[in-house]
Amino acid sequence: MLILTCPNCGPRNVAEFRFGGETNPRPTDPSAVNDAEWANYVYMRQNKAGVEAEWWYHRAGCGLWFLAERDTRTNEVLKTYVWRPES
Amino acid sequence: MPIRLIRQAINGNKPLPPMWRSHPMKGRYDVIIIGGGAHGLACAYYLAQQHGITNVAVLEKRYIGHGGSGRNTTIIRSNYLTPEGVRFYNEGVKLYEEMSAELDFNVMFSQRGHLTLAHSDAAVRTMRLRAQVNQVEGVNSRLIWPDEIKRLCPWLDVSDKPRYPILAALYHPPGGIIRHDAVVWGYAHQADKRGVHIHQNTEVTGITVEKGVVTGVQTHHGFVEAGMVLNATAGWCSTICAMAGVKLPVTTVPLQANVTEPLKPFLDVVIVSGSLHVYVSQSDRGELVMGSSVDPFTSYSMAGTLSYIEDIASHILELLPALSQVRVLRQWAGICDMSPDFSPMMGFTGVNGFVIDVAWGTGGFKAAPVAGKMMAELIATNKTPALIEPFRLARFYEHDLVGEKGATAVGH
């Protein structure tokens, strides 16, 4: 069973969380990108076999959306952290 | 096959010749197919059989049928929701019906009937819509009510006692199950006989693209020149496409399944419940083969989880309470290349000579023969066949998605 460490609540069973997908920054100015770039943002994913940064939501806990670095080949979680504007 | 058996008995039971051979890697192949599953091998077979293209290699990282082809729950059906999907999968069912004769190998296709249960008014409405779309496309599929469900499967609890009572079902008589390994071996045998090279234990580590044209494939046995490259790697398709610089709207998510200990034959239909996220059928060995919906997060790991077993057991007992003493024998996971609209992606990419047959999500096995045949036609003629035109990768840039809510393990 995968254990995720919520930045607020500590190590918890993964069943308490909702997976939010790999980080996929929205274009800062949506009106400045063309249709193909927007389709890339909406649909295309890196889907890495390796360490990826991804969103998690502590649904059955504190309700925090946070980031995790997880190896998708082994499900090993390297770290979890709170999003900061500069990160 | 029986003649071969008699010959064996007379010859003193010498070992049979292998169904496919090993070859040294050539320096160049006209077509390189990455992924030795049912899709890749079917494409190799049709390239050789229908189009006379035999300088073909199938590269497989492990052994053939190691991925989704050996991990699915072997259900074959065509009762999808979108007209594009129904037309496509119906061609697949027809090819499966002829497969044993075509490949001269018994694939044990048992068209025993397929029931998709509805537990809510919304689900009944969806089933009615699916039945009508199916009928318009000439597929045998209709909505039936609990009395007929009970006649087809007396073991199902059709009372109002379960938390989610069975209200109706979509009945699809041509649906059924098959021996999935036999499909892989049959295609491998017939492709090998026609000169296709099958390279197992050969991992692709890079794809060489020069000025927008594919020139070859880097493997850990060295570089191989290629006229065309087909990516048929299912769960791993994003990693292969990334080597050619092609973006895919795919996420890889495990789907778990399990079998129980063998029982006497008692279940002669395939039972699916979208609301309870389960499907169950009885194999020829007597084992109950069960599957579920995909795991709650993406992963390339093929490890099973305890929470899956708990969920599926509780849901199966809602449907078939008589199974409460039956034990689970094995559990496994396969990784699925999930697509945003639950429809696959077949055809050309932005890179010349690099084509894809991917994003099969939870239901690619049933499509292997028709996808292989269509991709072979596409490779041979350099044109997209009309049947698979709706499934082109470019649809995501043209906002022309094919929303397939009749896909396996999609909740309704």
Defining traits:
A: 87 residues; mainly beta; Folate-binding fold; 4-stranded antiparallel β-sheet; two-stranded antiparallel sheet; 1 helix; B: FAD/NAD(P)-binding domain; D-Amino Acid Oxidase, Chain A, domain 2; 2 domains; 8-stranded mixed β-sheet; 11 helices; 18 strands
Written description of the protein model:
Chain A is mostly beta strands. Chain A has one domain: Folate-binding superfamily (Folate-binding fold), CATH 3.30.2270. Chain A is built from one helix and six strands; from the N terminus they run E-E-E-H-E-E-E. Chain A has one helix spanning 35-43, and strands at residues 3-6, 10-13, 18-22, 51-57, 65-71, 76-81. A four-stranded antiparallel sheet of chain A has the order 3-4-5-6, with no helix packed on it. A two-stranded antiparallel sheet of chain A has the order 1-2. In chain A, a hairpin with a 3-residue loop joins strand 1 and strand 2 (10-13). The longest helix of chain A is centred in the middle third of the chain and has 9 residues, at 35-43. Chain A starts with a strand and ends in a 6-residue tail after the last strand. The relative contact order of chain A is 0.25. The model of chain A has no long low-confidence stretch (mean pLDDT 95). With 412 residues, chain B is α/β, with parallel strands linked by helices. Chain B folds into two domains: 22-113 and 178-249 and 339-412, FAD/NAD(P)-binding domain; 114-177 and 252-335, D-Amino Acid Oxidase, Chain A, domain 2, CATH 3.30.9.10. Chain B contains eleven helices and 18 strands. Chain B has helices at 2-10, 38-51, 83-97, 99-103, 121-136, 146-152, 180-193, 237-243, 306-319, 368-381, 395-398; strands at 28-34, 56-59, 75-76, 114-118, 142-144, 168-172, 176-177, 197-199, 204-210, 213-219, 222-231, 251-260, 270-273, 278-282, 288-294, 328-338, 345-348, 354-358. In chain B, the strands form three sheets. In chain B, strands 1, 2, 8, 9, 10, 11, 17 and 18 form an eight-stranded mixed sheet that branches. In chain B, strands 5-6-4-13-14-15-12-16 form an eight-stranded mixed sheet, sandwiched between helices. In chain B, a hairpin with a 2-residue loop joins strand 9 (204-210) and strand 10 (213-219). The longest helix of chain B has 16 residues, at 121-136. Chain B is globular, with a radius of gyration of 21 Å. The relative contact order of chain B is 0.19. Classes of the chains: A mainly beta (87), B alpha/beta (412). Chain A binds chain B through residues 1, 14-15, 18-19, 21-22, 35-36, 39-40, 43-49, 54, 72-75, and chain B through 236, 238-239, 242, 247-252, 296-301, 303, 305-307, 340, 396-397, 399.
